[in-house]
Specification:
Elements: E1 12-14, E2 19-21, H1 22-28, H2 41-51, H3 54-67, H4 72-79
């Protein structure tokens, strides 16, 4: 399933290990553990916004199901194959 629409306006750039979204990378750079017990108001607002769009929610579920069992290094290997993003 493709929406043929951009899900966000931030650009995706090449990095040494994988493609990154600059804003997200800057926000979480250096963190080894995320505090999932206390999501920020911004995270809740983003979640609520995405949850209202059934097409985007469905697409994100499919992506999650397809890649949930990959390790970070496994995902990096996948994105560095010839012809990949």
């Amino acid at each position: 399933m493709k929406t043929h629409n951009k899900l966000f306006t931030s650009s995706i750039v090449h990095s040494q290990y994988d493609p990154v979204i600059t804003e997200v990378h800057s926000k979480f750079k250096g963190l080894t553990v995320l505090d999932t017990g206390k999501p920020s108001k911004e995270a809740f607002d983003d979640y609520n916004l995405v949850s209202k769009d059934s097409d985007i929610s469905h697409l994100l579920r499919l992506v999650n199901e397809a890649y949930i069992n990959y390790s970070a290094s496994g995902l990096s290997q996948k994105t560095h194959q010839p012809g990949s993003p």
